[in-house]
Amino acid sequence: MTTQRERRGRVAVLFAAGLAVVALAVGRLRRAVARADSVPLSPLFARWRVGADYLDRHGVATGDSLPGEMDDVATYESPEFEPDALDPAVRRFYERTAEYDLGYSVRWHPGFRLGATLAARATSRLEQLNLPAPGGIGGTLRSRIVAVEERSDPRDGARAWIRTDDDGVAVIVAVYASHVSGDRRYVNIAVPLPASNLSTVLLPRTCEDGGVELTTRAGTDDEGLYLVTPLGGVALPLAQRFRVRPDGDGVRAVHEMWAFGRQFLTVEYAAESTESRRSGG
After folding, report:
1. Would you say residue 17 lies in a domain?
2. What's the rounded mean pLDDT across residues 199-211?
């Protein structure tokens, strides 16, 4: 029979273990907040719906259309990335992005499909991160890139890449920019959400096939995914990677995402220049 002293001992052990778990969680949260505080992140949030008219409704667009996700790929030169090693088709895609339509297909990985099905109901109404639920077939995205006012988003070269489906419904609205830390320039992307945004900081790396990898898994200081709210930002236990390679006059890309080290999403893209399609190339 368990004595009162033994019961008290077990309670003390459980209490100490609980304190240790709480201390570990608080410590990790503090580190996650400190990481976010060290990175220049976008202040742009949404209300409820995002949609293709997000910039106009929030009054943050300059009215100027821009050709590409980047003005000049060469500005991202770093120990990991050599711009001159890029295939011309890949470089053109990044500097003339708005001239491409993107065919895409989505695969949700086992263990995440139920969550993705439930989330798809919300994202379709939100018109943001509006990817098909498991079993969906993807489609074609039309691109438009618009400059964002510096007073609304002070990150370097902020611009919104608005991707819509054939009906003009927003699939992804993301505000692209960059920042420099040490001898590296990072791609710095914000996806507006209700009263928050999901920000991603990616490091470009050269690939042997003339392509490029943009990743949060390179082991440098700033890269990662962050949730930004009016109370501040916090680093998330998420990772993602884009691999873009030449494919004739266009490019093909694979976008992968992980949560707590488990891969949950793969999106494949095929980008074709609208000019090339019109000419029959």
Report:
1. no
2. 96
